Fold this sequence. Notes:
alpha+beta, 8 helices, 10 strands
Amino acid sequence: MKDIPCYDTFAKIESIAKGASDDKKYLIETANGNKLILRISDIENAGTKKAEYAMLERVATFSIPISLPIDFGVCNDGKNVYQLLSWLEGKDLQSLLPNMTEAEQYTYGLKAGELLRLIHTIPAPSNAEPWEDWFMEYVQESIDCYNDEDIKFEEVNVLIKYIQNNAHLIKGRPQSLIHSDFIDSNIIVMPDGNLGVIDFNCEIFEKDYGDPWVDIIFMEEWDNEISPRYSTGFVRGYFGGEPPQEFFNMLAFYFACDAIAILNETYEEGNAEIGLVDVQRILRWFDNMNNPVPTWYLKDFNCTND
Length: 306
């Protein structure tokens, strides 16, 4: 990284192990005391990383609290690309939620949903490919990939049938800029109590725009159990109240699609059973895909009940 133009100003370099990205991440402290984040990626990912950086430049013009883009380029004798960003001070919401009261979880869910809604005010390009064309091709590739695998699960057949029977829901869906990884570990509680967001991700869908509601499946890391208070607050914060039934229909559809994609990924890694746990979780949330309102959504809950 010594060929990064401002490397001489780096007084302290600390590796960051957190996060699922393949990027190497570093907390940088400069000679004048500023904190920065440095992300280094393989040169083969240059196109995706350049798109992520361009997206950050666009988001920064909308006064949304993010790690601001400072510099982008090639380093390590052409082997890598780097992004240099400002450091967003605070603690990630994932680490704070377990120690919050249920009322606090709900309140921060409201704030997170409001922040995502603000991000979605950033429009998609006027010449954007129709979302239904791109996404259904993406989903069919996931289904074809699963069908080509040696291992089969009856639970997945339920999801595939649900997707095929509800593909009409996606027709004519609007588009906006999407974060694609708006999970609680990427949401920062800043010192003033307001929220900021980091790690915009172009890798998942290989684009930075799409149906804004697809972002809501990333509202919380659900490797274990989702927080009903936080997630209910999130949905209500996003909609400014109770969501329409159309939203729940799309939510079940997107979760079903995502579960198959995750199963394929874990199968390739030799851990298909992990992906199956996710599939079973989705089926449990949506009553075997018979009810699009997930079990974690507390329809009769209001904060005064806590």
